[in-house]
């Protein structure tokens, strides 16, 4: 067993580390304070090749593997988690569905611009009454005169409302399947009449990322905008979320590493009782625990990523990686603020931002509770299905 | 125009280097290594010349097997191919041997222009590029902070204490560049993937026509006999401002005849 990165993976990681230090991190505090979407950084990331990293050159990508993408995401998120989620949502949620399920025409129309980072595509799954429980999806799409007529609301959608946003893939009920609604995925271009975006949310963290509610009122898109097969939406987004969870795990590792780096620096500089506080065992144990949990998170993230690269089912390991990495990141941010003492509570240092940015990793793309349900479902021989684990809906 | 650029992998300058107490060689094992930051300017300068003239860049490097990473970084930045000389017998070679090996490798390329950093960030001899020029019988134009290539000539601005000299020489030539000459590009991620398929020639000493008995520690014309830590500087003088500090500083500088 060899845990070494390949020369290409290592080189991509090194380049992204330098890029994160020189370009991503220096702008983070200001973008956070102003809740300003980082257009300049996104432009540079596009030129570097980050958006097309795990996709082949034939669609405008770089042709690297998923592990390389995880390394890049960790480094970028170490610099700024808001930039990290912008990248993750664009690559794992925006491009992935079109790459995996799009027709050649859909791919040719969008993937070159999306892989170059010139445009962003969003993914609209969550609704006020549906998310991990996709059966609760209320958004409907009806076939009418060669078009789909879409009505419904999506919430917490990333990258849909920027100046370079091109559109969104949404899930909608398109009919009744065997015992549950048939859900399909549809491509909706920005600017389509009936597609409206709410204002940006006021969030606890990730201030510089674009997150909004999307509303569809008699929104008509051509029949050809169906992504994949009619009724195929459920299995599509399970696959998309499986890889997305590993990506969120990598993002979490990046923030956790930033917390450890800042804590190590501070603990060796800050003096109390005539010595640096790093000489106190109470601080040493915190640092050791952080480093250990981060290393475990990274290993699990790469383990799940290696399965995705091998084309093998990764669901259980993806859930484990996200669960462990997200909870580790929250714990590391908590301890980082603690090690920083009063200065950790001030927005002058980045640890306060890490503390605000980190909680969402336990929520987005499936909460920690849902990850545990997925893992339990695998353990109990139910194949990762949460609805099979929970059973039929209670009347009421 | 075909351009050759010399690169070297060195211990990360942001770390603290260590010398082997017995051999006085720099310890390269177990430390973070990077392409010499000074060489990034050389690679960028070479790529800019090649791009402006429709040519290409050959990377030339000598070092332990791990130094292939630095070669690959230059390829990822955009160089077309590399000549990499890695041979255990070279370990401990001095600057002259390094120059002989690199010159022999460069002689096999069609490069009209050889670019190198001014000096390495680990050894700091600053002699390898000019030794290469001498061995290849080409003019050396050093300390360039600006570089332009004309019809059969190369012209540089050489950094001086008061400004710069304009130096021109005929091609083929060797040019050393300083840190201010350009802003080195990041290796693009596409470039990193493309580097995998670029040719890296790895000639042996024999193929370069170099007698193995003349290289390494044994063949070195220069020997480090002792290494002493630099003398610690005496503590500086602290001027506490009681209202007259500015005047006292002026008097101090006046005594030194610097103002």
Describe it.
The complex is a heterodimer of chains A (396) and B (259). Chain A has helices at residues 7-34, 39-48, 66-79, 81-101, 104-115, 233-269, 281-309, 315-340, 350-358, 368-379, 386-390; strands at residues 120-124, 140-144, 147-158, 165-176, 181-189, 195-197, 211-222, 226-227, 271-272, 275-276. Chain A has 396 residues and is α+β, with helices and mostly antiparallel strands. Chain A has 3 domains: 7-120, Orthogonal Bundle (Butyryl-Coa Dehydrogenase, subunit A, domain 1); 122-231, Butyryl-CoA Dehydrogenase, subunit A, domain 2 (Beta Barrel), CATH 2.40.110.10; 234-386, Butyryl-CoA Dehydrogenase, subunit A, domain 3 (Up-down Bundle), CATH 1.20.140. The termini of chain A are far apart. The mean pLDDT of chain A is 96. Chain B has 259 residues and is an alpha/beta fold. Chain B has a single domain, classed as HUPs (Rossmann fold, 3-Layer(aba) Sandwich), CATH 3.40.50. In chain B, 26% of the residues lie in helices and 23% in strands. Chain B has a 9-stranded mixed β-sheet, sandwiched between helices. Chain B has a two-stranded antiparallel ribbon with strand order 2-3. The longest helix of chain B has 17 residues, at 37-53. Chain B is globular and about 70 Å long. Chain B starts with a strand and ends with a helix.
């Amino acid at each position: 067993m060899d845990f070494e990165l390949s020369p290409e993976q290592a080189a991509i990681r090194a380049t992204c580390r330098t890029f994160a230090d020189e370009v991503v991190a220096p702008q983070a505090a200001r973008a956070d304070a102003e809740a300003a979407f980082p257009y300049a950084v996104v432009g540079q990331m596009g030129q570097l090749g980050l958006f097309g990293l795990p996709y082949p050159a034939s669609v405008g990508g770089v042709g690297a593997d998923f592990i390389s993408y995880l390394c890049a995401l960790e480094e970028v998120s170490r610099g700024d988690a808001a930039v990290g989620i912008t990248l993750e949502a664009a690559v794992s949620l925006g491009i992935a569905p079109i790459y995996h399920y799009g027709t050649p025409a859909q791919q040719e129309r969008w993937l070159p611009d999306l892989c170059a980072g010139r445009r962003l595509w969003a993914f609209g799954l969550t609704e006020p009454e549906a998310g991990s429980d996709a059966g609760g999806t209320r958004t409907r799409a009806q076939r009418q005169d060669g078009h789909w007529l879409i009505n419904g609301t999506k919430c917490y959608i990333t990258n849909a409302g920027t100046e370079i946003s091109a559109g969104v893939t949404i899930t909608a009920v398109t009919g009744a399947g065997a015992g549950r609604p048939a859900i399909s995925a549809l491509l909706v271009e920005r600017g389509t009449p009936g597609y409206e975006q709410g204002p940006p949310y006021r969030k606890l963290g990730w201030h510089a990322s674009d997150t909004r509610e999307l509303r569809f009122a008699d929104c008509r898109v051509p029949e050809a905008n169906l992504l994949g097969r009619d009724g195929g939406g459920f299995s599509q987004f399970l696959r998309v979320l499986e890889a997305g969870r590993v990506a969120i795990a990598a993002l979490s590792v990046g923030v956790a590493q930033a917390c450890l780096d800042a804590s190590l620096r501070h603990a060796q500089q800050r003096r109390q009782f005539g010595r640096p506080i790093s000489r106190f065992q109470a601080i040493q144990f915190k640092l050791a625990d952080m480093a250990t949990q981060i290393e475990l998170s990274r290993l699990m993230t790469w383990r799940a990523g290696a399965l995705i690269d091998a084309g093998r089912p990764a669901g259980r390991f993806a859930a484990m990686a996200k669960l462990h990495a997200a909870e580790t990141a929250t714990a590391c941010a908590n301890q980082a603020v603690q090690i920083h003492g009063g200065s950790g509570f001030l927005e002058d240092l980045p640890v306060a931002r890490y503390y605000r940015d980190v909680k969402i990793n336990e929520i987005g793309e499936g909460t920690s509770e849902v990850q545990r349900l997925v893992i339990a479902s695998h353990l109990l021989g139910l194949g990762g299905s949460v609805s099979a684990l929970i059973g039929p809906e209670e009347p009421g | 125009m075909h351009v050759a650029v010399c690169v070297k992998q060195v211990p990360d300058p942001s770390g603290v280097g260590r010398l082997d107490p017995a051999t006085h060689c720099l310890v390269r094992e177990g430390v973070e290594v990077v392409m010499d930051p000074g060489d990034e300017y050389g690679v960028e300068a070479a790529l800019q010349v090649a791009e402006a003239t429709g040519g290409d860049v050959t990377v030339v490097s000598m070092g332990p097997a791990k130094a292939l990473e630095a070669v690959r970084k230059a390829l990822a930045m955009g160089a077309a191919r590399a000549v990499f000389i890695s041979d255990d017998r070279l370990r401990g070679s001095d600057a002259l041997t390094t120059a002989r090996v690199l010159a022999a490798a460069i002689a096999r390329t069609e490069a009209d222009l050889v670019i190198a950093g001014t000096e390495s960030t680990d050894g700091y001899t600053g002699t390898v590029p000019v030794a290469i020029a001498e061995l290849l019988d080409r003019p050396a134009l050093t300390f360039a902070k600006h570089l332009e290539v004309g019809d059969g000539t190369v012209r540089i601005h050489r950094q001086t204490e008061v400004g710069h000299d304009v130096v021109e020489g005929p091609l083929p030539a060797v040019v050393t560049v300083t840190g201010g000459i350009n802003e080195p590009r990041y290796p693009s991620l596409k470039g990193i993937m493309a580097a995998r398929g670029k040719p890296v020639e790895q000639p042996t000493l024999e193929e370069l026509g170099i007698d193995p008995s003349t290289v390494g520690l044994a063949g070195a014309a220069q020997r480090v006999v002792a290494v002493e830590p630099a003398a610690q500087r005496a503590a500086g003088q602290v001027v506490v401002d009681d209202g007259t500090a500015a005047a006292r500083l002026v008097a101090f500088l006046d005594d030194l005849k610097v103002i």
